[in-house]
Amino acid sequence: MRIPPGVSSKDFSSALQEFEAAVGKPWVFTSDEDLDLYRDSYSPVWNEDEEPIPSAAVAPDGVEQVQAIVRTANKYKIPLWTISTGKNLGYGGSAPRLRGSVVLDLKRMNRVLEINEKNHYALLEPGVSYFDLYQYIHERQLNVWIDPPDPGWGSPVGNSLERGGGYTPMHDHFDAVCGLEVVLPSGEVMRTGMGALPGAKTWQQYKYGFGPHVTPIFSQSSLGIVTKMGIWLLPPPEAYLSGTVMVWKHHDLIPLVEIFAELQDSGIIRGTTSFASPFWLGPPNPELDSLRASGSVKPLEDYAERKKIPYWSLPLPFYGPAKVVAAQWEYAKEKFSSIPGVTFQDGPSHRFPLGAEELAKIPDTVPLGIPSLHIFSLLPPGSQGHIGFSPILPMSGEALLEAMTVFDRVHSELGAGRAALVVLTSFPRALVIIDLFPVERNVERNRKTREIYRRLIKEAAAHGWGEYRTHTTFMGDISNTYSFNNHVLRRFHETIKDAVDPNGILSPGKCGIWPKHLREEKA
Amino acid sequence: MKNARVALIVVLSMIFAAQAFAAPDESAVEKGQKVYQKWCFPCHGTGSGKPATDLLAARDKGSRPAALEERTDLSAPLIKMFVRHGVMFMPTFRKTEISDADLDALSAYLTRNNKR
């Protein structure tokens, strides 16, 4: 039997009996065979001593059962690690941060509690997936859109709380959260925002309630277990129109980003897009990479011109009334026309609702509010999984050029060729650059990946770039970089953690925040 | 390690594909189709944007159907192995996602057209 750290086998047996009494014996998992299903399929520490394999998993079906589990965990000081759908692959999957934790698997809490078509929101349990939510809406022909991330098997509750992103105008997922129900480490149930007012009619319509706004402290957090979450949805737009801006010189990236920022901050571009370049972004290409060996951008620009391949391209998504999106694209073209040599490409465009035949021909439906697993089509052949290093950059071409150079240098110095980078506009006012790494069931290769990853963390922090979210393996490393004023932010988090969760039972180590009894050991 | 896994999968595939099975239970097949639609179709289904189907199509080059529900050579043990152990970028699926009973039904559905 696997046992949580610091817990006697007698206490653990007693805790398991109480868990079984709370949720029913079939929903407490302790065999190696069952617990292997809670290993992180995309683990960068697979089969190594530090791989965080759980000691048990318990799967409640309601908030009262969650409360009972938490009370038992407090009694025996059992570390719990909460998952929603457990598909947070690339960030830890369904595995804990601390080896030997008990996974609190909320997948069975999978009810869509409310959809409001007139005010465009939903109230959900954590086990609902984006696929489930879309299906629920589609079957009932409800007049709302959801914003799925890549891929669609995750949980709107989990993804939003982890501050994930999508593609439609609701792409900043935590920004769409409105009202939580949380089981606190004491076992009490709390509701945030307007939910604190008994009988409130606006729990999902006004985020802040009265007094200090605490919903955000349950995001990327170990302070409570979210059992219900309100999320804003989108009225279905009449049309979607996409147009691509193409520029041909290296330094055109600077005005390209600047004009994009103005259009985004003005609310003209409301969806997520990505900057593309065959020379600097995407998977390595030996032919193009060899052109970069000279250290000059001239051979790259010449190649782009000769082959008629745009040096940088930027697809722009527009959502709204057909006349409006057409006018927005025209306006965007006017603005980008200040870049010498810029060219444009129209399309694709769609009117909603989509017919079944049209829908079946669209490979990537995610920007149209329909969840899919299409993103896996973009993985290299033979891929066994991936993780990404994804710091937030300033919204500027200069920062992007600098970051690409730094990332490439780190890869090169560590003998790893060129970085495979993706640049997204998932969050307002900033860019996120993602350096993608394959993970394998190969200890040596994973060690190399971790070496590069950790070097990137340090180099990025030295340039003022920090990750917005990370795999459990690197949570301590990232937390260490947010060190302003002698780590006052982390000390503040620890003060709250100690006050709210004195036994340190909830998600120990989440985002580098350890409970008091493990703090020195894990520092 | 990777090659060993692939070899294991190929060997198991050959062993299990050769086995004969009893006639499928119709209610299990019906239930299994629902399990398939919910859990497998987004990656293994027909139509555009199905990564596993695309991958199998590229690998098998038309020698057998790329969409799992059109196959006639799958076996229950093989299906269970993939669901519970994963393969390539397909992760494991927990029992809170696909229960053992769901998995049996899924196997009944995906083996319904096997030669008996």
Structure characterization notes:
- Chain A contains 15 helices and 18 strands.
- With 523 residues, chain A is an alpha+beta fold.
- Chain A has four domains: 97 residues, Uridine Diphospho-n-acetylenolpyruvylglucosamine Reductase, domain 2 (2-Layer Sandwich), CATH 3.30.43.10; 121 residues, Uridine Diphospho-n-acetylenolpyruvylglucosamine Reductase, domain 3; 231 residues, FAD-linked oxidases, C-terminal domain (Vanillyl-alcohol Oxidase, Chain A, domain 3); 50 residues, Vanillyl-alcohol Oxidase, Chain A, domain 4 (Orthogonal Bundle), CATH 1.10.45.10.
- Chain A is globular and about 75 Å long.
- Chain A starts with 8 loop residues before the first helix and ends with a helix.
- The model of chain A has no long low-confidence stretch (mean pLDDT 96).
- Chain B has one domain: Cytochrome Bc1 Complex, Chain D, domain 2, CATH 1.10.760.
- Chain B has five helices and no strands.
- Classes of the chains: A alpha+beta (523), B mainly alpha (116).
* CATH topology group of chain B: Cytochrome Bc1 Complex, Chain D, domain 2
Q: Which stretches of chain A of 5+ consecutive residues score pLDDT under 50?
A: none
Give the oligomer, counting copies of the same chain as homo and different chains as hetero. Answer: heterodimer
Mean model confidence by pLDDT of chain B: 85
Domain count of chain A: the total is 4
Distinct helical segment count of chain B: 5
Structural class by sheet pairing and helices of chain A: alpha+beta
In short:
The complex is a heterodimer of chains A (523) and B (116). With 523 residues, chain A is an alpha+beta fold.
